[in-house]
Amino acid sequence: MYRIDTVYIGGTFQPAHGREELLLLNPTTEAPMGVLVLADEEDARRAVASAVGAFPTWSRSGRQERMDLLNALAEAVRRRADDLTEATILEYGGPIEQARWRAGLAANNFLAAATLLEDYAFTRRINEVEVVAQAVGVATHIVPWNSVYNAISVKMAGALAAGCPVVVKPSEYSAWQVQLFTECLHAAGAPAGVVNVVNGRGVVAGQALAAHPDVCKISFTGSTPVGKSILRTAAERMARVTLELGGKSPTIVMDDADLAKAAALALSIGYANNGQACIAGTRILVPRARVDAFCEALRVAMRDVVPGDPRIARTTLGPLVNHRQYDRVQAYIRKGLEEGARLVTGGPGRPEGITRGYFVQPTIFADVTNDMTIAREEIFGPVLCVIAYDDDDHAVAIANDTPYGLHAYIIGQDMGRARAIADRVDAGRVAINALTHEPLAPFGGFKQSGVGREYGAFGIEAHLELKAVIGAARS
């Protein structure tokens, strides 16, 4: 078993001030695998003080210095790609191919920011006014357990490119992944205080960081209720916030879709990341006349959904992150049955042949109406709902009848109609006939799915303030 009892502050690994210990279990086997000594409020305060001390120098650093650090971060992550992949399999239960992709994605986030910096306009001229973009200040990044490398790297890349020192508060359920990633950050040679990492509970270390008067920017990825709490805390001092929150994304299957291909894609979209993805298309909207045929296509496509040991190459669905999440998802499955939804496949309990680990049967409900609990609330597990619609207008109405608006998907052959539907769906991203990621495009949500955008130039801009200097424009 590993033991992690340090925080990363001022360019060094230091003993955590906190004393509470958290036993971490392997989600595949339920066996103990490590202990994390949780950071506390004092650790959070020391980390902020370190970042405050680094701000005057880093905020005035040159473009090349920032690019050099971002490139060094990418290279450090790439050198440890195998270790990072192994940690994701061990600690999170991520299937091996997905785990390998996530390590590469983190390196690419740093590289993308470095490339953008080459010609990013920190100053612009409007007539006789010079508009200057300057670093907002110390940034706190609070990230979840379901995609920790990506979440840390994309937020940090934008902040460092903008000139902001960073304090990262990751989920305590990603302790080993964070430890290895922090070692990568250290190896890249960031100036002391520019990058700091404290791993503790959100209600302790996270709250201390969100409320700290010297934190000028908060970027949070996680649940909508916690995001609302952070927003209220930040409002007291008008700290800038970016919130990437929950989702209940629709997958609209058009009436001209090839049902076999649509079913396979819908399952990939819905069960991505073991079902623990804020962008998962968990509400599958299907033309009423084609529901039965589509459910049969889903049953056939389910043959390619393979729950099991994430180390085995053919596995496509690993366990949930912990027992608490397992119990939560099981409760939603029971709720769906209680509310009268028809079980197409799956149901309560573990998949057949699996006797241990936090595995959930990949479950699909039909005869779901959009007012049912399983259609309204984010389950964060491999549970999908098939909802019937009458025409394109009805599909759009159902898709938008949700407090969320993070992502949406459209599957069909008539690209003109698909594009017209995409224009009417309220979501930060809409993918047509695909489950792809563009790291330079903005990512964030409408409505209660968040505030602001990440990725690409948008992640840099989220860490900048604009100043107009009037009457002093340089020639």
Report the major sheet: 7 strands, mixed
Q: Tell me, briefly, the overall form.
A: globular
Q: Please, what is the CATH homologous superfamily of the largest domain?
A: Aldehyde Dehydrogenase, Chain A, domain 1
Under CATH at level 1, the class of the largest domain stands as Alpha Beta
Q: Looking across the biggest beta sheet, what order are the strands in? A: 15-16-17-14-13-18-19
Uncertain runs with pLDDT below 50, 5 residues or more?
A: none
- The CATH architecture of the largest domain can be named as 3-Layer(aba) Sandwich
Number of E-type strands: 21
Domain module tally: 2
Report the C-alpha radius of gyration, rounded.
Answer: 23 Å
Which percent band covers the strand fraction? Answer: 15-25%
Count of runs of 4 or more consecutive helical residues: 15
Helix/strand-derived category reads alpha/beta
CATH topology of the largest domain: Aldehyde Dehydrogenase, Chain A, domain 1
Helix content: 25-40%
What is the multimeric organization of the chains shown? single chain
Arithmetic mean pLDDT: 97
- The N- to C-terminal Cα distance equals 63 Å
Keywords: Oxidoreductase
Organism: Nitrospirillum viridazoti CBAmc
EC number: 1.2.1.3
GO molecular function, one term: aldehyde dehydrogenase (NAD+) activity
